[in-house]
């Protein structure tokens, strides 16, 4: 069983991992397009979390994780509890490319018809929201900074996340 991580799964998979591989997904991009009312915000003051948002010519570089053998059922249950808390994500299977290998991965993508979907927000508006929001798993800015730092450690460039991380640091200094 393979799982594609593009956000917090990169730095906190929450399941036993047998193998990690840098992977590319085409037709989707990483985006702060989901209002978070649980983990990184509240219903009264939503934060933003990353989701895979469909875009024909886009690509998203992330990490494909192979679940440790024998832990597939428990991993699936844990991921569903974590990712499907508000049904804004859709559980799907997507093919990613890792080196020359095509891997069939479990992935969580945004439902663009869900009330929490907010694609197309300007980067400055995203930064203002992320700088202020806090939810059950802590400040929204920590989620952004952890993701940006881990992408950089892996050599994965994401100019929007890099800009957001710097801007949120300025806003919260």
Summarize the entry for a quick read.
This protein is an alpha+beta fold. The protein has helices at 8-11, 72-83, 123-132, 140-153, 159-172; strands at residues 2-5, 17-36, 47-67, 89-98, 101-110, 134-135, 138-139.
General description of the model:
- By secondary structure, the protein is an alpha+beta fold.
- It has a single domain, classed as Hypothetical upf0131 protein ytfp, CATH 3.10.490.10.
- It contains 5 helices and 7 strands; from the N terminus they run βαββαββαββαα.
- The strands form 2 sheets. Strands 2-3-1-5-4 form a 5-stranded mixed β-sheet.
- A hairpin with a 2-residue loop joins strand 6 and strand 7.
- It is an enzyme of class 4 (lyase).
- Keywords: Lyase.
- It comes from Gemmobacter denitrificans.
Q: Please count the helical segments.
A: 5
Report the major sheet. Answer: 5 strands, mixed
Which segments are poorly predicted (pLDDT under 50) over 5 or more consecutive residues?
Answer: none
Q: Could you estimate the helical fraction of the residues in percent?
A: 25-40%
Radius of gyration: 15 Å
Got a strand count?
7
Strand content: 35-45%
The geometry reads as globular
| CATH second-level architecture | Roll
Instruction: Give the structural class.
Output: alpha+beta
**Amino- and carboxy-terminal Cα gap:** 42 Å
Indicate the mean pLDDT.
Answer: 96
H and E string: EHEEHEEHEEHH
Q: Biggest sheet, strands in spatial order?
A: 2-3-1-5-4
Number of domains: 1
Question: What is the CATH C level class, in words?
Answer: Alpha Beta
The CATH topology is given as Hypothetical upf0131 protein ytfp
CATH homologous superfamily annotation: Gamma-glutamyl cyclotransferase-like
Protein name: glutathione-specific gamma-glutamylcyclotransferase
EC number: 4.3.2.7
Enzyme class: lyase
Keywords: Lyase
